[in-house]
Amino acid sequence: MFFIVLFFCHTFFFQFGRTEVIDNTLNPDFVRKFILDYFFEERQNLRFDFRLEKLLCILSHNVAESRVGKIIVFFFADSGIPGKKCGTIIVKAEELNNCRESVMMQFCGNKLDKKDFFGKSDPFLVFHRSNEDGTFTICHKTEVVKNTLNPVWQAFKIPVRALCNGDYDRTIKVEVYDWDRDGSHDFIGEFSTSYRELSRGQSQFNVYEVINLKKKGKKKKYLNSGTVSHQIFNIESCNPAQPTSLHYMNPYQLNAYAMALKAVGEIIQDYDSDKMFPALGFGAKLPPDGRVSHEFALNGNPQNPYCAGIEGVMEAYYQSLKSVQLYGPTNFSPVINHVARYAASVKDGSQYFVLLIITDGVISDMAQTKESIVNAACLPMSIIIVGVGPAEFDAMIELDGDEVRISSRGRYAERDIVQFVPFRDYIDRTGNHILSMARLAKDVLAEIPDQFLSYMKTRGIKPSPAPPPYTPPSQPLQTMI
């Protein structure tokens, strides 16, 4: 029975964690993953102790990590006997996407191959995620269901980044085995899918044929080794009550979403006459029926989503976190189209719309969002995107047309209407949140005047005539005492 203990060293080695125990095999494939913070500028040493459960031997080898995302490091464990090696440890690493969603899934099998001589089969599933180099890494094993060819495995929860690292089209390979006590599990077959396919939920599209290529090559009439169908697929986002959530409501300070909202909103609200702002949320299940929405009123009133001032918007945001369940995927296009419908009805230059989107960087409808922005570029509106959290915002940078004008289906946007900034670039190192917010507001609003003027000039809309100068009354005012 083998397991590995991982030691991490910054100034000294300490035990970081350990894998699960795997028995009856000399080629264990461990499921548990370790998440480490990587710093390019620092040397970070790792030590792997490969152990028997009863501690009959402890084998280790110190190594230094090279770079995150593409390393494949081989560790040869020394047996203590000169000239003799006792095995190889293969370690693979990949930079993690910032996707914080988890998914609850359940599968069932139908008419799987019979593998046990005196019974049926004891089937279980092994899920593998594809890596950047085309190899596969195990990411989940189901429990074993005894003596059946039609198993129903228990529902399980897995982080999306463990399953596909936030890449919805990355291949997921699923192998089906018949469990044997001695560890020599019989291979029944396999199938491939992706997160995007699985997200379609229970349907005829998510019934997979289990194929055993060796068996298929020997039998001309071979169809499959049974089927596996998808029963449940529920997406769950990080709970805002947890300190790890970007929406966490700390009683002592604003979270990143609230700071971005307050910083930008308090400046831009001065240019709105009635200070009534429609506030929308996206990516949540709404009460009472759990309907998923990407365009819902934060104040819970779809007929009147307006909030009084930025303080009203913030209050609606806080209240919505208590009533909705954050839920993926994350779609931008519905809220952009929502504002575009209002902007399309105003052509005389009397109104100009500014949409503020605050996001953690995960986006599921990139193609639709690009198309929405291209369509909106001819309307009196601008889009501000503030990225919060530690994610790499490559998708958001792509939407900002500063360097390359955004396009969709071969059609380029008439003008650049998107301004993106990552909030982390404006966080003051001394902890002065007021200064952080001031810096953010200054940069994020810098392009709005030029975007406003470019729209007005291209349409030949000129400023309204100035009101006549004030003329004092010709006669002194009478007062009554």
Summary, kept brief:
Belongs to the copine family. Residues 1-19 form the signal peptide. This protein is an alpha+beta fold and 481 residues long.
Please explain how this structure is put together.
With about 475 residues, this protein is α+β, with helices and mostly antiparallel strands. The protein has three domains: about 90 residues, no CATH class; about 140 residues, C2 domain (Immunoglobulin-like, Sandwich), CATH 2.60.40.150; about 200 residues, Rossmann fold, CATH 3.40.50. The protein is about 20% helix and about 30% strand. The chain is built from ten helices and 26 strands. Strands 2-1-3-4 form a four-stranded antiparallel beta sheet, with no helix packed on it. The longest helix has 15 residues. It comes from Echeneis naucrates (Live sharksucker).
Q: What is the β-strand count?
A: 26
- Report the average pLDDT across residues: 80
Helix content percent band: 10-25%
Order of strands, main sheet, comes to 2-1-3-4
Q: Termini separation (Å)? A: 102 Å
Question: Might you state the CATH topology name of the largest domain?
Answer: Rossmann fold
The description of the largest β-sheet is: 4 strands, antiparallel
Q: Which class best fits the helix and strand makeup?
A: alpha+beta
CATH architecture of the largest domain: 3-Layer(aba) Sandwich
Number of helices: 10
CATH class of the largest domain: Alpha Beta
Radius of gyration over alpha carbons?
29 Å
- The overall number of domains is 3
> What general outline do the C-alpha atoms trace?
elongated
Strand proportion: 25-35%
List the uncertain runs. 55-80, 476-481
GO molecular function: calcium-dependent phospholipid binding; metal ion binding
Biased composition (Pro residues): 464-475
InterPro entries: C2_dom, C2_domain_sf, C2B_Copine, Copine, Copine_C, VWF_A, vWFA_dom_sf
Domain C2: 67-208
